[in-house]
Amino acid sequence: AENNIKKILMKLYKKLGRKGCTIMTWDKDKIEHIIPEDPNYTKNLDTSLWFKHLKKIKKQISSCVLHIDLHGMKNKSSYYDIEIGINALKKSNFKLYKKLKPIIIQEFDKLDIKYSLYGKFGGSGKCLPHKTVTDKGILLGFNSIQLELEEDIRERLVRDRKFFNKFTNILKNIHKGLVPICSLKKRTKKRNKRNRKKRTKKNKNRNII
Fold this sequence. Notes:
Elements: H1 5-20, H2 49-60, E1 66-73, E2 82-85, H3 87-92, H4 94-108, E3 115-116, H5 133-139, E4 143-150, H6 151-159, H7 161-208
Parallel strand pairs: 1-4, 2-3
Antiparallel strand pairs: 2-4
Helix pairs in contact: 4-7, 6-7
């Protein structure tokens, strides 16, 4: 079900460049004779190679990161061409989720395909004893979203240049919309701290009176 995912990743890297994105995937040459851990079903973060390398990447890149976990699904797995798993972000930061959601919808509408933010691939282990890749990203401070691409969509992304460019621009635009939300979130926290200090001073003055 994961056919063409690596080709899509390499095309994205070539299009966006080193400054525009960082990619991570399995090295098939090194794991040829072992059964690799499924990074979407990690029970122990301490032994997770995926989590370990995400930590390394976190130290090298900016604080406002759009983390996309690309997956492949079979055509018959879903009614939708693309399922957008945003549950991990929704659970961790509902305010950010509410602001980012309309941006995602606005952008994916441009592809003229069937997609959903409420499919069966939600992008989070929820209350289960395992962590998905997006769960891991959220734990590290990324803004993590899972994209499940059905077979025909992956084939189009590899073969159809215009469709691939549209898809790439959608990801760029979502990140562009994310950046001011990230900075706004930080400024809001600082402002709240200032407000708390002001309220404390006023309360002290009242006590003196």
